[in-house]
Amino acid sequence: MSNKVKLSNSREVRMACLLVSLCALSLLASAQVSPASARAVGARPFQKGSPRPLSRAQRKNPTDAQVDRVTKRLDLSEVQRFDLKKLLENDRTESKRLWDDQQIAPIDRMTKLRTLHDNTRKQFRALLTREQQAKYDVILQQAARADAPPQDKGTTAK
């Protein structure tokens, strides 16, 4: 019996490629860099008088950093900040659980992750005022345009 996964369409192939890429990136991000390899890619060693890198304890929690960015863009209240942080923490916990569950097929995992993130976005949008929702919609549209594949310049209508 073969362990190969049969991919039936190009969307599934793209999703599988995305999954493999994300796994590779997470492995690269977690790998330690030796001083020799850091010099090879042009990293500079610590020099007296330059700011020291932050320790793990000094670095901001990624969820807190994301809450801060959203707060600046949408002018969130303290209650909204608290609720957003809870939503993001739940999203991260569930995402990690899905990634760690090897019983789920990669395509199904990606579908569940997309659904989870979409639901988190909907729950967050429900916390916002009408004015904040309008700003948020603009931000989402800008992000969608930035993620869209480039259009072929030869196919534009005249």
The general outline is globular
The tally of beta strands, per DSSP, is: 0
| Tally of helical runs | 6
Order of helical and strand elements: HHHHHH
Cα-based radius of gyration, to the nearest Å: 21 Å
How much β-strand is present in the residues? under 5%
User: What is the helix content?
Assistant: 55-70%
Distance linking N and C termini: 55 Å
Mean pLDDT: 76
Structural class: mainly alpha
- Characterize the main sheet: none
Poorly predicted parts: 27-33
Structure characterization notes:
- It is a single chain.
- With 158 residues, this protein is an all-alpha fold.
- It has a domain at 59-147.
- 65% of the residues lie in helices and 0% in strands.
- The chain contains six helices and no strands.
- The protein has helices at residues 10-30, 35-40, 62-74, 78-100, 106-127, 130-147.
- Helix 3 crosses helix 4 and helix 4 runs antiparallel to helix 5 (106-127).
- It starts with 9 loop residues before the first helix and ends in an 11-residue tail after the last helix.
